[in-house]
Amino acid sequence: MKHQRIILLFAFIFMGMPAWAADDNLVSAELMNDIGYGAIVAILILFIVVMLLILRTFKVLTKIMLKQQGITEDQVENVIKAEKKPKNETWIKLLSLRPMSEEKDLLMEHEYDGIQELNNPTPAWFMYLFYGTIIFAIGYLLNYHVFHTGQLQYEEYRTEIAKADIAQKAFLSKSANRVDETNVKLVNDPVVLASGQVIFKKNCSPCHGEHAQGVVGPNLTDDYWLHGGKINDIFKTIKYGVPAKGMPTWEKLLSPKQIADVANYIKSLHGTNPAGPKEPQGVKETDDKLALN
Amino acid sequence: MQPEKFFYDNKIVRNFGIATVLWGIAGMTIGLLIAVQLYYPGANMHNQYTTFGRIRPLHTNAVIFAFVGNAIFMGVYYSLQRLLKARMFSDKLSAIHFWGWQLIIVSALITLPLGITTSHEYAELEWPIDIAITIIWVVFGINMFGTIFKRRERHLYVAIWFYIATFVTIAVLHIVNSFEIPVTFWKSYMVYAGVQDALVQWWYGHNAVAFFLTTPYLGMMYYFLPKMANRPIYSYKLSILHFWALIFIYIWAGPHHLLYTTLPGWAQSLGVAFSIMLIAPSWGGMINGLLTLRGAWDKVRDDVVLKFMVVALTAYGMATFEGPMLSLKQVNAIAHFSDWIIAHVHVGALGWNGFLTFGILYWLIPRIYKTELYSKKLASFHFWIGTLGILFYVIPLYWAGFTQGLMLKEFTPEGMLKYPNFLETVLRIVPMWVTRSLGGCLYLTGVIVMAYNLTRTALQGKLLANEPAQAMPLEPVNTIARESGWHRRLERRPIQFMIAALLVILIGSFVELMPTLTISSNIPTIASVKPYTPLELQGRDLYIREGCLACHSQTVRPFRSETERYGEYSKAGEFVYDHPFLWGSERKGPDLARIGGKYPNAWHYNHLMDPRLMSPGSIMPDYNWLITQDLDTSTTKAKINAMRKIGVPYPAGYENIANRDLTTQADAIAADLSRDHIKVSGRKEIIAITAYLQRLGTDIKANKTTTK
Prior knowledge:
The complex is a heterodimer of chains A (293) and B (708). Chain A has helices at residues 2-22, 29-68, 73-94, 103-106, 124-146, 153-174, 190-208, 231-240, 256-268, 289-292, and strands at 107-112, 115-118, 224-225, 283-284. In chain A, a hairpin with a 2-residue loop joins strand 1 (107-112) and strand 2. Among the domains of chain A are: 2-71; 190-292, Cytochrome c-like domain (Cytochrome Bc1 Complex, Chain D, domain 2), CATH 1.10.760. The longest helix of chain A has 40 residues, at 29-68. By secondary structure, chain A is mostly helical. By secondary structure, chain B is an all-alpha fold. Chain B folds into two domains: 12-475 and 482-512, Cytochrome c oxidase-like, subunit I domain (Cytochrome C Oxidase, Chain A), CATH 1.20.210.10; 534-707, Cytochrome c-like domain (Cytochrome Bc1 Complex, Chain D, domain 2, Orthogonal Bundle), CATH 1.10.760. In chain B, strand 2 (180-184) and strand 3 (187-190) form a beta hairpin. In chain B, the strands form two sheets. Chain B has a two-stranded antiparallel sheet with strand order 1-4. In chain B, strands 2-3 form a two-stranded antiparallel ribbon. Chains A and B meet through strand 1, strand 2, helix 5, helix 6 and helix 7 of A and helix 2, helix 6, helix 7, helix 8 and helix 9 of B.
């Protein structure tokens, strides 16, 4: 009965897995991972429990069988005890330890302030460890500096970048994330603006102000633009920055879609007249919002 | 022959013991304070003298040189006399050594909060104190060798081998790492620059760990553990093997602190290879200690002193296994600059150095006061709260190290950094920092309890300042039979022994330092890299004074995650005028090697005034005093002259017009700030540090535009 239940449980778990995997819309990848780890840990624990149960069963069975053959428990205990001893000795041998009884023969004749020393050899396993690390070290140097089979840091870096480029291109060609300054579109989709607002608050407001009124950076709500006020210009300014004037490059920190979102959010702020605006900077431009509408 | 009667000097041992406990409490309290500042920047009490960058070096110096240093001298002065059957060579030298060392510590306690620092980690003290350290160290050496020469024991025991190696190697390390050219009484520049300076510093830094925190403690372990357990040392052969292997190999491992930097590849690989080979020699000490306890494990159960010793040896074994693992470059790529390293060093500091010191104190104080320990229960309480403290300290930091190290390397499928904002990774690990400071608090509580327990012990006993002893005088050398075994013969020749140890540690030092310091092809130069302007130079010295490098590195490693985050990886040629180098060893904030030109001057002004204005949630302290304090330009001339002497090509006579250039540049920055409605005089310190920050990493960009 018990085994049947366990088999059923396993069967259920295994049948369930593909079902979860197929349904990736409902269960996030992270949750999937957690469930996966949980399942592995649970199975391992179950395995240990089953092993312990089997061990216990064997013990009980042996006792019953031995009793039937007319052997008393004391005799059994003696046999077990006798068997345990050599086990301990193999452990000591493994550690290259001499029995305590032989210690007297190992004492060296000198002593310092009552401290004596034993003439034990260095443990064999210790020497193997030492030789092993020496071989590793020689191998390490040969690998990187003689045979050049391993990559040193700059070569390793080029490999890493090349791999990442391939992966990135493959990903971007599949996704709609290919927007750049030439094809960015002005939209007033609330989802886009909301996403843009979040990015703005986090990255732009320290310099441009909570309401884009301008602090260190210029006011973004007036009619005046230093580097062009069209959506394409704003996208470009954000993407490449204007390092000479202190505007950072965001290309590495924001994805193209994020830049498009925040550019659209900035466009949406035009004419909001926030409190405490910075004085106008740059050239007055007509709004291209009209052109879209 | 008649046995000679003499007295052991216990008073000097007691003095060093008191100093150990007091400085230990002081150093750990400062540690706790800076741990709190990491998540509560206001804990600097809005005072420049108690701000993280300035008192982190105070914590490390106090714990290493004051707590551990005094503990070493306590252990050495106690064991050396007894192992040699002789009183210390000179009571006067002992006193000079003791008071001189305490004076050096006090001078550190004053100068470091004032921002007087060389910026070399664990060697921050300025040149006058460096000279004082040299003198006191020589006094210690004379006192030790003087005692060895008048010994009544022919052969030197293994503990003394370690003391001798400690003495010679620390002398070499300290002198080579203190090659600095004085500018004023409290300011100097390192003679080496950039990569070379980095190599010298980490050759020193790593071996300070080896020969200040490890070898003297192994020596003490070899004396005190067999005395405490009343057991013979497990293996004399193992002692010989691991002693020589340890000191020979340790000295090579320094470059593992500089993996993925601009240090030449061959030096990095040597550092890794030797670090791996270090596992067995390090473990030799642990094995010999633990196997010495063989047959005495029943005592460990009841004796709190032995418990401390067992945990100390275990922590030593863990830290010396972890160290080589961290030096593997694949692991180092994640762990370096992260909290993992802080956890690693604290396994060693709290577990190995701390617990071994406590064990010795609990054993030694009752003996020299001729009494029993006041309370075994309190000692036992100390053991458990200390162990718990270590666990609460290191486990969260390991966790924090993994978390941040991995977060910083994570990319989205679009090929963007998943956490482009460094601060985001910091805020994630703040809870672990809180837990860590709790661990530190537990550990410190234990030490305070120990201080109480030892004081009560001393009060109930009476110091036996001069302990009577007797021993046979040494028989003349010609009467002893020729011994078999080369090492046995070496053990009775202290000078030859010292020279042998010196030669062994010089091999690795020469092979690694000499080519890097002398062969120019190891440091390719870049034409567009120019010396700092006078204002930038002054700003750089402010950067050093404030200890910015405690949290900000200045070296971009060649990883995609770093070049995406910070910009092009660093080149060796960029650092040729950096006396000293400022690469740092920890990143609590982002790297600054390419910060120049990234933000406007106004951003830096606001950010230094209150970092939270520019990056909400930042844990960086406010640097208001940079805005109110005037820049001291009286030193400009001396600084330019000193820099020229060590090879920075300022034109002849430039020192006379340097301050004019400084003013012009400062006024330009002040004018730029005023355009952003910030009214500040060009004479203020903040102008200089802004000029320096704006220069960082920009030279190489000029190179690009000219070659295009």
